[in-house]
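Below sits my pick:
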Amino acid sequence: MDITDSPIQLQNMYNRKSNTYAEHKIFPYVTTEELRMDLMDKVRNLAKSKNPDHPWLKMSDEEILKSAGLWEKDFSSGIQGYNLAGAAYDKKTSTWTL
């Protein structure tokens, strides 16, 4: 089957074979200014309710975000920042859009 004249099928094949998933796309210009950092105390309380000795209780906000996998570094390009999951929760929508 020749898909060279079908950009949609070609993109679908590339996405299937690619090692990079949309969830790992990095948004280097998203900062904590755009995120709901006011919810970090709730995050800690939830973690504490599951485990009173949870490591997040001793971490900074940024360390928690990294530990949760919301901050990544692409080692092939050197770009680092919040990924799709981290960027999806912003002040404008106040909801997780995933």
Remarks:
- The longest helix spans residues 7-17.
- The first strand starts at residue 26 and ends at 27.
- The two ends are 34 Å apart (CA to CA).
